[in-house]
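Why do we bother with a discrete structure alphabet at all? Because it lets us treat a fold like text: something you can write down, compare, and reason about line by line. To make this less abstract, here is a complete entry for OstA family protein. Read it the way you would read a sentence in a foreign language you are learning: slowly, and without expecting to understand everything at once.
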Amino acid sequence: MKPLFLTMARWGIGSFAVTAVAFAGMQLSAQAIAGHNSNAPVSYAADRIELQDRQNRVVLSGNVQITQAGLNLSAARTIVNYTDSGSLKIQRIMATGGVNVTRGNERARGDTAVYDFNRRIITMAGNVRLNRGGDTLNGGRLVIDLASGVSSVDGRASGSSSVTGQGESGGRVTGTFSVPEN
């Protein structure tokens, strides 16, 4: 019985070490995102653009592409809120319809996304999938803090304990981490 216990303990410690290394890799990746310049110019393209001047917003629809300093967002529709106090300044971008955010070898997908320029936070919700190389994380909501470089994934899109809004993850965070061969 003692050899079986030692084998189980070794496997448990080994699994913990592999998981810790995988999470450290994801954290290093998040720290790389922290260097994103949210004050860089924003370029956009869409099939249709509607300026709603009284509401201080622009609605982009149809194959929307938005880029900023290597950060790329694509979606079916976006609403760009801005202030107009002498010069235009983007406050927030809300994207819906198959949202993809990419930077380098990282890709995040979800049903909706909000990029808050003032807080430097991107929040994605609904069937969220985060890919980095061969590693994946799935959940209901992803929050990327561009200021600190910390990313977090919740199982539920709303962050609440209700059954609705769980998406494909079933209310839990799931994923796979690739393990390098020796």
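What the structure line is telling us, in plain words: The longest helix spans residues 2-33. The mean pLDDT is 78.
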